[in-house]
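Researcher: Quick test of sequence recovery. C-alpha cells follow.
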C-alpha cells in the first residue's frame, strides 16, 4: 500500500480492560468504525494513544491489531518515540515488519536537546526504514521546537520525509513551512481547535483527537473546509469547538476517552500515572460533552 498523507487520520486511543491490559478486541472494532466513517488512516502510539506507558511488546501488539483491523483499506502509521534513539529505531523497524505504511517521528521523551541532537535523533529514525515519514512538532508537550527552516533542513536530508504534523498551536507555522516548501510536504494540523484555520493557510490533513468519539462530524468538517465551503464548515466548527478544545489541555487523554464513553464507543479507563477524572472536573467535562451530543448538527457528508 502506498502512503497518502491527506485527510482525517485519528490519533487512535489505546483502550484498556478493567484489569489494565490492552483491550485488543475493542481496539480493532474502534479502528474499523472510524475508517467506515471516512477517516483516511490511523496513527497509533501517539501521545493520545498513551504510547509512553506501553511496553515494547504492547506497542508491537497494538500495531498488529490496527493493521489487521483495517486491512488494505487505509494505511496505519506508527507513532515513534522513546527515551533513547536506539529504542526508537528498533520500534521503527518493528513497525515496518508488522505492516505499517508510515511513521510519525516524535522527539525523544524527557530529554530536551539541542538542534544538533534532535536532528541526529530524527535522522536515525528516518534512516532506519524506507517508510514514508511524518515529522511531529509539538513544543508544548515535548519542549522541543522544530522551526520551519529546520523542517526544510530535514526534508533536504531525507527523501522519505513527506509530511509534518504541526502542533505548536500557531497556525502561522503552517503558512511559514508552506512558504519555504510549497507543496513538497503534506502539512497536517495536530491540535483539534485549529483545523478550520489550518486548512485555510495550507494544511491538507488532520491528525485528530475528538474523532475518536465523533468521526462523522470530524470528516464532515474537514471535507467542507477542503471544498472551500467556509460557511458550511463554520456551522460545524462553531458547534464542535467546545469539544475540540478538550484536546488542548493537560488531561486531554482522560477527556477524550470520557467523550468516547459518552458516545458509546469506548471507556474512560487510562493507564497510570493518569487517573480518570473525578468530582467537579469530571462533571464540568460531562456538561460540555453532553451539551455537544444533544445539539449535534444534522450532517450530510457526501453530496
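Model:
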Amino acid at each position: 500500500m502506498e502512503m497518502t498523507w491527506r485527510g482525517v487520520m485519528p490519533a487512535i486511543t489505546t483502550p484498556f480492560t478493567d484489569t489494565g491490559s490492552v483491550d485488543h478486541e475493542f481496539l480493532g472494532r474502534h479502528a474499523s468504525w472510524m475508517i467506515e466513517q471516512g477517516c483516511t488512516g490511523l496513527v497509533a502510539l501517539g501521545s493520545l494513544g498513551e504510547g509512553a506507558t506501553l511496553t515494547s511488546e504492547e506497542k508491537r501488539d497494538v500495531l498488529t491489531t490496527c493493521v489487521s483491523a483495517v486491512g488494505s483499506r487505509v494505511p496505519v502509521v506508527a507513532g515513534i518515540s522513546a527515551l533513547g534513539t536506539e529504542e526508537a529505531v528498533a520500534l521503527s523497524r518493528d513497525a515496518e515488519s508488522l505492516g505499517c505504511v508510515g511513521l510519525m517521528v516524535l522527539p525523544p521523551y524527557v530529554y530536551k536537546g539541542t538542534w544538533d541532537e534532535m536532528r541526529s535523533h530524527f535522522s536515525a529514525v528516518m534512516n532506519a526504514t524506507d517508510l514514508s515519514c511524518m515529522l511531529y512538532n509539538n513544543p508544548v508537550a515535548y519542549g522541543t521546537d522544530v522551526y520551519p527552516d529546520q523542517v526544510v533542513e530535514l526534508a533536504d536530508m531525507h527523501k522519505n520525509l513527506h509530511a509534518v504534523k504541526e502542533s505548536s498551536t500557531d497556525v502561522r507555522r503552517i503558512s511559514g513551512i508552506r512558504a519555504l516548501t510549497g507543496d513538497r510536504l503534506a502539512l497536517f494540523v495536530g491540535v483539534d481547535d485549529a483545523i478550520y484555520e489550518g486548512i485555510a493557510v495550507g494544511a491538507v490533513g488532520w491528525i485528530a483527537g475528538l474523532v475518536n468519539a465523533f468521526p462523522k462530524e470530524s470528516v464532515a468538517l474537514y471535507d467542507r473546509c477542503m471544498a472551500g465551503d467556509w460557511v458550511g464548515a463554520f456551522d460545524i466548527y462553531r458547534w464542535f469547538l467546545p469539544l475540540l478544545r478538550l484536546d488542548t489541555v493537560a488531561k486531554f487523554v482522560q477527556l477524550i476517552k470520557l467523550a468516547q464513553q459518552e458516545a458509546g464507543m469506548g471507556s474512560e479507563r487510562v493507564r497510570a500515572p493518569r487517573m480518570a477524572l473525578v468530582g467537579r472536573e469530571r462533571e464540568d467535562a460531562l456538561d460540555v460533552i453532553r451539551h455537544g451530543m444533544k445539539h449535534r448538527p444534522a450532517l450530510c457528508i457526501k453530496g
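The first helix runs from residue 24 to 36.
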